[in-house]
Amino acid sequence: GRQPLEAPALRALADFVFAHPNIVAVYTFSRVDNIHYFAEIKGPKRIGRRFAPDSLAHEATTDALGDRARYTGTGDEPPGHLPSWAYYHLGRFSFTAPAWVFPPADSTDTTDTPSRHDLDRRALAYHRANSPGAVLDWTEVEHPDLPDRPVEGGGPTPLALTTPPADCVAAVNASATALLFALAERLPQLQVTARAEPVGRGVHRVTLALRNTGDLPTHAEAGRAVRAHQPILIETELSGGQTLAAGRPKQQLLDPIPGGGGAEAEMLIVGDGEVTITVGSPSAGPQRVTLDLD
Q1: What is the band of 99 on the pLDDT scale with cuts at 50, 70, 90?
Q2: CA distance linking residue 60 with residue 68, whole number of Å
Q3: 8 Å CB contact between 127 and 160
Q4: Burial 141-171 (b: 16+ CB within 10 A, else e)
Q5: Which of 195, 202, 194 is nearest to 269 (CA)?
Q6: Reduced to 3 states, what is the DSSP secondary structure of residue 74?
Q7: Is the pTM of this model over 0.90?
Q8: Cα–Cα distance for residue pair 194/290, rounded to 1 Å
Q9: Can you tell me the distance from the alpha carbon of 103 to that of 117, in angstroms, rounded to the nearest whole number?
Q10: Which residues contact 163 (CB under 8 A, 6 or more apart)?
Q11: How does pLDDT run across 70-81, given as a tens digit for each residue?
């Protein structure tokens, strides 16, 4: 389309992501490649270096996925590209690489950093040698809106430049599926432990230890910048006549917890009995712990 997300299929995809705040990362199969061509993520100047953690997380993920991304695309990113929109506007980690590219046309095509035009030339050379019907010869046609001008039609048929040959589809599907599973294994995983200690006069100090055992942070910093994420929420349910002497029944952890990192929260509770604490967010998942204070 002429505008971003003008195509109904892309608009439906965007609506789906907006409706599911538990989506942490977006992977796009496209000819653009930010797996093999890493560029530091840059945020708006008013935010300064806040996006630096996202750059580190992105780089670690692309290093881990590099061997599974079998095909190298181009580092030339067109304006309005969906992966950039998914990060800077949706606030999700965004990765992209081709599921398939046509092989080099001949021994002289040795570039390791192909441009979009290089990929087009490879596809055209492959079709001319193997499936000529996929590329139509340029022939003169009559155009009703240009009756007095010469007009020609031809070139690659729809999707001919990006669709793998039929005998390669099974292998492409297998490698793409393995890549997506590898990315899923790196999603954030929240673990919560709690301990209580009496401090006197019926008061108990409750300490929560949160740890992200996954590789990606619990949310992207970009998500905070565009207000597209829900931070980790800690909800405390008291019983009987218990009261909170310090802390709040609901409190948020605004900073993301990086992969392998952790955070702590404390509260003081007056009174004995059972306390139930729920910790989590849509992108990190919920955890529930129960303590018996006595």
Answers
A1: very high
A2: 14
A3: yes
A4: eeeeeeeeeeeeeeeeeeebbbbbeeeeeee
A5: 202
A6: strand
A7: no
A8: 8
A9: 14
A10: 100
A11: 888 888 777 778
Residue 286's nearest CA partner among 53, 19, 93, 21 is 21
Helix (H) or strand (E) holding 121: helix 116-130
Compute the chain's Rg from CA coordinates: 26
Tokens of 56: 């580190």
Nearest partner of 210 among 187, 233, 229, judged by Cα: 233
> Which residues, at least 6 apart from 104, have a Cβ–Cβ distance to it below 8 Å?
110, 122
pLDDT for the residue numbered 46: 47
Phi then psi for residue 191, to 5 deg, are: -120, 140
CA terminus-to-terminus distance, the chain:
65
Half-sphere exposure of 88 (CA within 13 A, CB side): 12
Closest CA to 93 of 256, 285, 287: 256
Residue pair 41/51 in contact by the 8 Å Cβ criterion:
yes
Handedness of CA 181, 185, 186, 192 (dihedral sign): positive
- Which residues, other chains included, contact 289 with Cβ-Cβ below 8 Å and sequence gap of 6+? 192, 193, 194, 208, 276, 277, 279
Residue with tokens 């692309």: 62
Q: 103 or 191: which carries more pLDDT confidence?
A: 191
Q: In degrees rounded to 5, what are phi and psi of residue 32?
A: -80, 145
Main-chain phi, psi angles of 60, to 5 degrees: -65, -35
Give kind and range of the element (H or E) at residue 61. helix 52-65
Four-CA torsion 222, 224, 230, 233, nearest 10 degrees: 120
**Where would I find the beta strands (DSSP E) of the chain?**
25-29, 93-97, 135-141, 151-156, 190-200, 203-212, 232-237, 243-246, 250-253, 262-270, 273-281, 285-293
